């Protein structure tokens, strides 16, 4: 990995951490908070692509494991890997990878702005919602003992927020691509 | 323009960035010089209300900056590092952005953007990426964005930073030709030749307030 | 280039980075196995005693915790609204204790020490052939370096909005924030290469 | 020092940043001037291998920068914005950082850090946070970090940027006193007075290679 790639991964890990300063919203019926950090995961995929986006999320998980309070609400420590939220947390890795992979496939510099935004939006929706929820919900249901239907319907409460996040990530991804092209140029 | 400082001071905790200052500025061109950390930027930020005085008042065109936020529409500010002030990545979008939030219609926005680009002969920059511009081009783009919204006073914080001789002359020309009032902070003393009023700051204090030649002499003494 | 480190000579300062990280990791597990309010309250008192005796004036020490403390209180309040009060108090105490100790660790451990420890911990992973321990250490150090910088960039961009009388929206904050920090990142990467810090690559 | 360019050129896609250049540098002090975007930084980055020539070769002390990565240990580089070059927040840590990756022992690192701080009378900066330093102090810290690892050639890209008169004189003095060879890129022409060899770049081409007075004259003509 080139030094630039390494630094870029660290930068997005830091962005995910910084987004943790926004307070999480805890819901009563599901033991997983709404957090702005998953926006960072989507942006990492959209801006950095699959490989670097994945590494950025892995770096965050290393920080969590060390015990630094980098998750929203000041959480951190190995306990975060054995909590009801852990499926989502570990799902971030796959989410960033999928978002990045699809961004690389769906978006290129020759498209017009709208097409780029749509491509990024789809990538963020599939990576940051479909794939992420699949991880999060299965873990909640199987390990968290919530049962599939409760885990599934409970998680639907995240949908509005996460669609907005995917939308923001798409707009940001497009603007960064126009203003500081990263995805294709820097492989 | 009419700017009045009434015992305005700025403290950051125990550190004094600007000692109580009273003065009135009405001239069309005002220069500001001083060593690093002497309080020049702090002084300028008071004028457009980015920093509020921790004591005293600053009155710009009759409005107290601590109370009236609309002062910032009267006072345009070009930051020490202009890349920090461009918000949207493409020059044209950035210029339009300031206008949009002021409620102009789409047609009006386009007209005004074109007008300001024409005024500064910057049409060729319209579709460029801000982060790829050279130093001189960046200053020009920042100037367009700020002046598009029609402030009557312009503050330029070290506008010739990193610029070559040619761009320096160019920016100097731009500033000379401005119809707006301008306050120019700089380490580039040539820029101020001919200014009737130049303020010299030292350790948070106004130590000279005179025509360019006299002020520069005072500054050189301090720096020696 | 910023950091949360503060100079001093307290017990925490003298403890090795490794010991602190081990205690922190242990705390991250232990605090979550108990729901006994008395135990957790004791943990809060102890960690508070540690944190507030690091040598930082109380006001400054408290100011650093404010944002994160606020989020913890919000979490607890939400928890209170939907769960039995006992659960809310447990969450509050647990998170507060962990945060206090973690803040103590970051305040007394230099980025260098972090890098060294993480590198040492990651050394066994090198045998997989996938990663280099030095890179993991460097990456972690860079994150610790970047976070305060991102926050100050955020402030600067808000100011740019204010100076131009513009309304703040998520995209108009995030776009310049990313572009500016990406540029910084590029420069930092060049500096790392120029100084030959990643010897195996350069 | 011995630096040889053999038809070295740099292209970014269609844009030519540096036209094929052949020259040899052996002098202890070399100045580099030119308009914004004329290729100065590109030229400098070639010397320590940060940028590889897209054609031709660059040989530094007998080693080809495209093939031999160890060139970067011979050539220290102080960037145009030194705040991005300080990697770790505490000055002492940052200096030590470069040494650590060179495999020195802990004791040796401490000795060398102290030595370089003493050399530049910068002991008072050792425990300061880099982001709190003034512009002049920042340059000094960057200098310590880079020189601690013992390069024999030092490249300074606009070292007096944003500095006031006093700090400018200070940095100028630091550069004069260096025992290492130095290549100084600058828009601050006074800095180069007395230099025997100054290169002038224009649109990616070396257009003059002469003593300071002559080179500056040529530059002024271009800029006019
Ligand atoms: N937000 C802040 N918090 C604490 N101190 C500050 C802050 N902003 C400025 N200062 C301090 O106030 C003093 C004046 O700073 P200011 O930026 O006005 O200087 P300046 O004259 O613009 O310097 P330069 O020529 O380097 O730009 C300095 O000592 C600076 O460190
Ligand atoms: N990574 C890059 N990609 C594309 N173009 C580049 C890149 N780096 C530099 N350039 C271009 O190469 C040319 C030379 O740039 P360089 O940075 O060497 O100029 P400079 O003389 O150092 O200018 P300044 O005085 O503004 O620092 C410029 O036109 C610049 O836009
Ligand atoms: O902080 C953690 O431990 C992980 C939280 C995961 C929250 C998930 S991410 C997807 C979904 N959308 C949200 O806003 N929250 C959940
Ligand atoms: Mg200033
Ligand atoms: Mg340059």
UniProtKB/TrEMBL annotation, chain A:
One of its GO terms (cellular component) is plasma membrane. It is a multi-pass membrane protein. The chain crosses the membrane at residues 55-72, 78-97, 118-143. It comes from the Bacteria. One of its GO terms (molecular function) is biotin transmembrane transporter activity. PANTHER family: BIOTIN TRANSPORTER BIOY, BIOTIN TRANSPORTER BIOY-RELATED. This is Biotin transporter. The lineage of its organism: Bacteria, Pseudomonadati, Pseudomonadota, Alphaproteobacteria, Hyphomicrobiales.
Automatic annotation (TrEMBL), chains B, D:
One of its GO terms (molecular function) is ATPase-coupled transmembrane transporter activity. Keywords: ATP-binding, Nucleotide-binding, Transport. Residues 3-222 form the ABC transporter domain. Coiled coil: none annotated. CDD domains: ABC_cobalt_CbiO_domain1 (cd03225). GO terms for cellular component: ATP-binding cassette (ABC) transporter complex. InterPro entries: AAA+_ATPase (IPR003593), ABC_transporter-like_ATP-bd (IPR003439), ABC_transporter-like_CS (IPR017871), ABC_transpr_CbiO/EcfA_su (IPR015856), ECF_ABC_transporter_ATP-bd (IPR050095), P-loop_NTPase (IPR027417). Belongs to the ABC transporter superfamily. This is ABC transporter ATP-binding protein. It comes from Rhizobium grahamii.
Automatic annotation (TrEMBL), chain C:
It is a multi-pass membrane protein. InterPro entries: ABC/ECF_trnsptr_transmembrane (IPR003339). It comes from the Bacteria. It is found in: Membrane. The chain crosses the membrane at residues 21-54, 66-85, 92-115. Its main location: membrane. Keywords: Membrane, Transmembrane, Transmembrane helix. Pfam families: CbiQ (PF02361). The keyword Acyltransferase does not apply. The keyword Iron does not apply. GO terms for cellular component: plasma membrane. PANTHER family: PROTEIN ABCI12, CHLOROPLASTIC. Belongs to the CbiQ family. This is Energy-coupling factor transporter transmembrane protein EcfT. It comes from Rhizobium grahamii.
